[in-house]
Prior knowledge:
- By secondary structure, the protein is mainly alpha-helical.
- Among the domains are: 1-97; 221-280, no CATH class.
- The protein has helices spanning 3-42, 48-59, 71-77, 85-98, 100-108, 113-117, 148-188, 192-196, 199-219, 223-247, 261-264, 269-279; strands at residues 124-127, 130-134, 140-144.
Amino acid sequence: MPKEDKQTALAKLDAHVEAVTQQQIAEKAYEVMGAIKALNSLTENLGAQVMRALMRFRDEKLYENYGYGRFDDYLDKHPTSPMSYATFNRREKLLESEGDDIYNLLESIQVPMTTRKALPPDSFEVRDNVLIVADDKGKEYEVPLTDTKRIKNIINNIAREHRDAKKKLTDETKKTEALTNRIKELSESKPASSELSTPHGEALLFVITALQNLIDKANDLSDAEVIEARGNAMELIGAKMSELHQAYRFDIQHPGKVKSRKAAKEPEVADADIVAALGQ
């Protein structure tokens, strides 16, 4: 065979192989998308099989056979796309964290994505047709898979508690940061800087920080916990307030004056009244 004919034959063979390959890829794309549509039509929810098929559709770039250069463009713009790209991303993260079985279960009982995202990691386990759900504190709830109403109630409660705990932690962190910044401002300000840099000033900042922390914790107590805790707490604080008055030689009847050290050590009715009031 002449050299030119041989090259022509090889070129035709390459073109044929390329055409066959492209046809096979296109057929695979249509097959995968057809399976996704069929699965999606059998249920109102987007189960794990649909998501796995879409992930394959993305990974093998089968969307290119529909005229799109990017997967996100296909999902957002194709008229028969099963979901938006943003929804796909959220669902993929849930599928990877929950696993196929849990994902399918929560989809079937229509637990919202926002609730599932609010749950602690590794919250679920299935054993012998029983769903085991764990909360933030490690407490486990065992519910038959058939009891979907109770499953939803438990999941909603755990998600709410987890959100509240995260918000509380965030709020406490913000308060701590604000207090730290305020202390920093005080320590760097003039003329307060010289006062706060003394042992007395350092002790004062320590007490302010500790009291703010105590206030934050007290605000978090329930009514029953407040009743149990406040009597002892106020008694201890009241006693220290009395000692503080003596140390500062404070005269409650004449706030602008300073008592002598000897007079400051003598108990007064005014200080006793303050202690009693704090203890109530």
